[in-house]
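**User:** You know discrete backbone vocabularies at least as well as I do. Would you mind producing a protein record, from residues through to fold? Write it directly below this note and I will take it from there.

**Assistant:**
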Amino acid sequence: MPRTPKRPRDLNQWAKRMVDIATGEVEDIEPTPPIDPNKDPAAVALGRKGGLKGGLARAASLTAAERKIIAQKAAKKRWGDKS
């Protein structure tokens, strides 16, 4: 399904965008990305399906202690010494 593009934050740009849409100068939907002919559509669908559930499945399989270790490592990486 095509997505609606993000609206401009500036009020004047937003108003111009609405006028352009109303007059038919621009479309209100983003064009769908081209399909790569070198990729197998079934493999792409399978990869997307796995990607959507991957993080949730991993989190469900971790123990509380493992989650804590991962969180500590991430915090150390993010907030650690930046010199």
Notes: DSSP finds three helices and no strands in the chain. The two ends are 46 Å apart (CA to CA). The helical segments are 11-23, 41-61, 64-79. Residues 28 and 41 are 27 Å apart (CA to CA).
